[in-house]
Target: Ribulose-phosphate 3-epimerase
Amino acid sequence: MRPLIAPSVLASDFANLQSEVEMLNNSQADWLHIDIMDGRFVPNISFGFPVLEAIKRYAQKPLDVHLMIVEPEQYIERFREAGADTISVHVEASTHLHRTLQQIKATGAKAGIAVNPHTSVHLLEDVIADADLVCLMSVNPGFGGQKFIENTYRKIEALKNLIIQRNSQALIEIDGGVNQHNAPLLLEKGADVLVAGSFVFSADDPAQTIADLKSSK
Ligand code: DX5
Ligand code: ZN
Model:
C-alpha cells in the first residue's frame, strides 16, 4: 500500500505561508503535519492557534496536529476549534493518557499518541486499542532537520506486533529525519504515514519530492 505523506509545515517559509499551503494542496501530500512546541515539553517554541487558524483557512487536506506541550489536556478543544483533524499528545506528557484520548475523540478529532525515541512502545499496550494513530519520533522532538535515529526500525516492528495483538486500528506514523533513503525500509517495517519537513521544503521541487516519497518502495 502507498504511504500517506504528511509534510511538516514547520520547515516551510512562514513569510509565504499561504503559497506554501497552496503548494501542498496541489501536491500528493495527504495531510499537513503541524508541530506545536511550548518551550517546556521541548526546548523550542514554534507557533500556536493564530497560525494554525491561518493554515486552516487555505488547507484543503486534513491537519495532523502534533502537540509537543505539557498538560495537553488543557488545550484539546481549542486545537480542534482552530482546525485540527488529528490531535497527537505525547505519552510522556500525559498523566491520564486514556482519558485524554477519549477527550480528543469527543471533539470529533482522531486521537494520536506520540512517542519519544527513548520510550518503549510496550508502554502503549493498554491504550493502543483506543488510538487512531501512533507517532513514533525518529528524532528527539523540538527541531526540524535532525538526523534519523536507526533504532526506529526496531520500534516499528514491535509496535506493529502490538497493534495486531490488540486488534487496534492505529496507523503508524514516523516523524523526524525522514527522506528518500530511509523511506523504503520504514515502509517495509510497517510504517503507514511518513512526516517529512526539511527533506521536502529544502528540495528544489517540494511537490516532486512529495510525489517521490509517495511512490517509495
Ligand atoms: C520535530 C517535529 C517534526 C519535524 C520533522 O520536533 O515533530 O515533525 O518537523 O522535520 P524533519 O523532517 O526536518 O526532521
Ligand atoms: Zn512532528
